[in-house]
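Researcher: Next sequence.
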Amino acid sequence: MHPHPLRLYLASTSPARLATLRAAGIEPVVIAPNVDEDAAVEAWVAANGPIGAVTMVEVLARAKAEAVVGRTVDGEPIDGFILGGDSAFELDGVIYGKPHLPEVARERWHLQRGRTGHLHSGHWLVDHRGGAARAAGGSVTTSAVTFASDISDEEIDAYIATGEPLKVAGAFTIDSLGAPFITAVDGDPHAVVGLSLAALRSLVLGFGVSWPTLWNR
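Model: Next structure:
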């Protein structure tokens, strides 16, 4: 642990992002951003036109981080870095977020079985040291994910019955029950979880801060 750690505020309620940061030595302060994602995307499209997956995840990551700017935690102003994140899975040029419904998840698994898609993870970091937003920057990391071709319908149904794929982009995880159905990842595996530690480190370095300064576990 760094003797004078900087606090990281996670503008996301994703258990996977939280677990990834904890495994990397960072205990963030979790703040629910409460962003209407559909409304944020619609507003961007209205102003700029059609949106691709890469732009979309960065727009939503930024919206989540900015929704936390200026808040207080236990009566104290935020003093550190605010991180927003978002992920989307893309297959054949179609963007897939969280399926929510079992029948939607099942349809997606039948479509992606034996194929390769791309998981895009957006990151937006706000320098909020001193209790106010000073600067910000973002990045998107993309990794290719290949699914096993011999996944049976019974395995798909059993996986969906757990409820796990209903709540994650692309209807799969790589760090939990969905991992055995994935045969290859080309790119940053942490990005598939929803948070690229390498991308976050680069953003932090962009503000002149050494990565170990965030270690507080």
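Model: The chain has a mean pLDDT of 95. Residues 7-214 form a domain with the Maf protein fold (CATH 3.90.950.10).
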